[in-house]
Design brief:
The protein has 20 helices and five strands. It has about 475 residues and is mainly α. β1, α19 and β2 form a beta-alpha-beta unit. The radius of gyration is 25 Å and the shape is globular.
Length: about 475
């Protein structure tokens, strides 16, 4: 009997499904999935912050003014820092010029939060891919997810936009290339770090030394020279030339004399906790790799400062440490394979993820467990009404409460500086019980003698006054 004909396409379905399954488990596909999930998490957090009018500092407003200036092909004059203040005199971050065209397309302060989330999510995909490729799917995915949830990245996202958002993926790309022994790529990605922030020149110096140790070529030494040269040029020439005070604004914070006179200050509990957590999130593996030396410049300038805000785990200061310690952990598992069986590697990867999840309850993402409490919108109506009282295109002096919601459409000054008399003044009076209904106008007239202001909006939270 003749055979029955096989329906068209029947034989190709299993092959197609098998092809899709293989594609779904390829290193880059898995890594991209981890990065995409991280981006979704980061974006939800940022949106909850934004809609609840949660502003962590004036920095988002500052960098929005920078992006706005670059989008109009102007130097980064940032009125929030002072009238005519060029932000390139504060920190050396010329790479932020790339924000200009992005802001031109999406002229909104929230755009910068999206950009930061994307940059950090890219670093997640890079770290996850490196781990998956060298250590296997399960271990690699666990390490990538642990990195995505690491406390340093959580704190950076919680603190909203800062220039180090660009350093995080550059470090991840450079260190991943270094682990792959792609020396040229590692060199190029690391070299770009000097254009993100001046102190990263010293980080580049150490990356170059580590590369020299690994590659045993002069290329690493030249990278070290490049990093050191840009650190000196930025801090001793460029920043003093651009700064109103004719100096590197943060030089006084490097209190080496204070450390020498009181060496025990290095062992402040907050500093010890920060160092301990860097080790803990990698279950100690980072101590088995020389890549961990790359954290030393950042820890040095932070711990030499007399400002306790630099010592702990909050804000954005630890974000650049996360790619380093996780790359060091991957390196330790790669280079010491006889010590770590496949099963033990999976166990250690799972341990890193478990630690990251547990620590999350103590850091920013722990607030996502009760968004109604931590991201309440009870003040949204009041905030929107206060913003509506200020027209587009005017000058405004304000505190940090709503400045990030004004910078896109007005020229904003911070109330703590000596500013020219603005057309509008907005203040948050919610923390001042018994404040007079006309306080905004009265206080503005005290700051700007000879200028009269009248109230145009007041409620229990905000007051807005307009120049007569």
């Amino acid at each position: 009997m003749p055979e029955e004909p096989v329906p068209a396409g029947t034989g190709t379905r299993p092959a197609l499904l098998a092809s899709i399954a293989r594609a779904a488990t390829r290193p880059w596909t898995l890594a991209a999935a981890v990065g995409a999930l991280a981006l979704a998490l980061y974006s939800v957090f940022s949106w909850l912050q934004w809609r609840s009018f949660t502003i962590r500092s004036w920095d988002l407003g500052i960098f929005t003014q920078l992006a706005k200036a670059y989008s109009n092909f102007q130097p980064p004059i940032v009125s929030l820092k002072g009238e005519g203040y060029n932000l390139l005199g504060d920190h050396f971050h010329p790479l932020l010029v790339v924000l200009g065209p992005i802001y031109k397309l999406f002229p909104h302060a929230f755009t910068l939060l999206v950009v930061q989330n994307i940059l950090i999510a890219v670093s997640v995909a890079v770290v996850a891919h490196c781990a998956i490729k060298h250590l296997g799917r399960i271990t690699g995915v666990c390490i990538g997810a642990a990195y995505a949830l690491s406390w340093g990245l959580q704190s950076a996202i919680d603190a909203q936009f800062h220039e180090v958002a660009f350093a995080v993926p550059l470090l991840a790309l450079s260190l991943a290339a270094l682990l792959d022994e792609r020396w040229r790529s590692a060199w190029i990605w690391a070299a770009l770090l000097v254009f993100v922030k001046e102190d990263l020149g010293l980080t580049v110096l150490v990356i170059g030394l580590v590369m020299t140790l690994r590659a045993r070529t002069m290329a690493g030494l030249w990278l070290s020279v490049w990093g050191l040269a840009w650190f000196i040029l930025a801090t001793q020439v460029i920043l003093p030339a651009m700064n109103p005070g004719d100096q590197w604004a943060y030089e006084s914070q490097l209190n080496i004399t204070g450390l020498l006179s009181d060496p025990l200050s290095f062992f402040d509990p907050e500093k010890l906790i920060t160092m301990s957590l860097l080790v803990a999130i990698t279950v100690g593996l980072c101590l088995l790799s020389p890549l961990t030396l790359i954290v030393l410049p950042t820890l040095a300038w932070r711990f030499l400062s007399e400002l306790p805000v630099y010592w702990g785990q909050e804000w954005q200061y630890s974000a650049v440490l996360m790619p380093v310690v996780f790359a060091a952990a991957i390196d330790a598992l790669m280079r010491r394979r006889p010590l770590f069986s496949r099963g033990l590697r999976k166990l250690l990867g799972a341990g890193m993820l478990l630690i990251a999840v547990v620590l999350s309850s103590q850091y920013a993402f722990g607030t996502l467990l009760s968004p109604a409490t931590h991201f309440a919108t009870t003040t949204a109506t009041s905030s929107n009404d206060a913003l509506a009282a200020i027209p587009d295109g005017v000058t405004v002096e304000t505190d940090i409460s709503l400045m990030s919601y004004l910078v896109d459409r007005t020229e904003v000054y911070w109330i703590g500086n000596r500013n020219p008399a603005p057309e509008y003044v907005l203040i948050d009076v919610s923390g001042r019980p018994g404040v007079l209904p006309g306080a905004a106008a009265f206080e503005a007239e005290q700051r700007f003698p000879g200028t009269a202001y009248q109230m145009v909006f007041t409620d229990s939270r905000y007051q807005v006054a307009r120049k007569r």
